[in-house]
Design a protein that fits this description.
The protein has twelve helices and 13 strands. By secondary structure, the chain is an alpha/beta fold. The structure holds NADP nicotinamide-adenine-dinucleotide phosphate.
Length: 319
């Protein structure tokens, strides 16, 4: 039986991947910083959860050893340049060293569509640096680059649905930016396929190891917000924000208390469309016919209105 170490396995995509990995007849070791985050995966019989710090090289070395491959999904969406470097680059460097030390050769790394050294955002540039570290490592690497990912529990369509359940209008930055949203189950399936190919050694060298994960349709952000509102039963007028106001909104949201929903770096990333380049293979090359957003999103966004936290906040007059 194959054993895979999963970093970031408790997150949105990681949880779906861990479930889907039952198809692999494998054991997964999922590393998390907090056992609380692992609730959704720890009941899966093929998953062992370990609490620890992936940034600690001794921990990483000890954990990598004895596995047949490592899956890396660790990422942050907001932070300083140093924070992005620590999570998207330095951690990958540590992972490469741990793999080299313990003789584990296979790594499946989930990057992001738009990762490029000259990309407009720190997130995308640091993702490109992480990819470059892996590509230069000499390890047996597969890279998956999803566009924005939707599905039950996403932080994207759900957020726009919840905002529209509370606010009468939607002031929107980056309204015209185009995305090619991909269903989380299709991303998880792509990861399973890539792991199988890594294990069998059937991936070709160079660009044959890089895959874009995109859905069948392209939408502007305004289209997506409109759909999220409609599916959740609260469609609101969208107010596209001019650049200066969009920046001010992002700045205020960075410093607002609670979880960061939007940052200036997010805004920067929306200066380029997030759609398949076609320069590398896509999901079809992995035998996956991507599902359309319109067939999946209504089912889980309809539940947004009955979210008890949202109801409490709405009745208290705040989101
Ligand atoms: N979701 C999307 O729309 C999307 C689109 C394109 C690309 N991606 C990429 O797909 C991957 C997974 O994304 P996701 O949406 O599933 O992410 P997520 O839900 O935010 O999960 C992130 C995971 O990383 C771990 N993590 C976060 N910060 C960390 C830190 N500072 N140190 C160590 N571990 C940390 C968390 O583990 P614990 O909290 O359990 O420790 C969690 O399991 C990422 O590489 C992301 O860039 C996602």
């Amino acid at each position: 039986m194959q054993r895979f170490l999963v970093l970031g396995g408790t997150g949105f995509i990681g949880r779906h991947f861990c479930e889907k990995a039952s198809e692999l007849e494998c054991r997964l070791t999922v590393l998390t910083r907090r056992s609380d985050s692992a609730k959704a995966v720890q009941t899966l019989p093929w998953v062992d959860v370990i609490v620890g710090d992936a940034h600690d090289e001794a921990t990483l070395n000890r954990l990598v050893a004895g596995h047949d491959a490592v899956v890396n999904l660790v990422a942050i969406l907001h932070g300083s340049e140093a924070a992005f470097h620590r999570v998207h680059v330095a951690l990958v460097e540590k992972l490469v060293r741990a793999c080299q030390t313990s003789g584990v050769r296979r790594v499946l790394h989930v990057s992001a569509l738009g990762a490029a050294p000259d990309a407009p955002s720190m997130y995308q540039r640091s993702k490109a640096q992480g990819e470059a570290v892996l590509t230069a490592s000499g390890l047996d690497v597969a890279l998956l680059r999803p566009s924005v990912v939707f599905g039950a529990g996403d932080q994207f369509l759900n957020l726009f649905a919840k905002l529209q359940a509370v606010f009468p209008v939607m002031p929107l930055a980056g309204a015209k930016t185009r995305f090619q949203p991909v269903w989380v189950e299709d991303v998880a399936q792509a990861m399973v396929e890539l792991l199988q190919r890594l294990v069998r050694g059937t991936l070709t060298v160079g660009a044959g190891r890089v895959f874009e994960a995109c859905g069948p349709d392209v939408f502007t952000l305004a289209d997506l917000v409109r759909l999220a509102g409609r599916y959740a039963g609260h469609p609101r007028p969208i107010l596209p924000l001019p650049a200066a106001l969009a920046r001010l909104q992002a700045l205020l949201m960075e410093f607002a208390p609670g979880k960061t929903l939007m940052s200036r770096d997010n805004l920067d990333s929306m200066r380029v469309d997030n759609v398949a380049t076609g320069k590398v293979a896509g999901l079809l090359a992995l035998g996956i016919s991507a599902s359309a957003l319109e067939t999946i999103a209504p089912s889980y966004l309809q539940a947004v209105d009955s979210d008890p936290m949202l109801k409490r906040r709405r009745s208290a007059g705040r989101f």
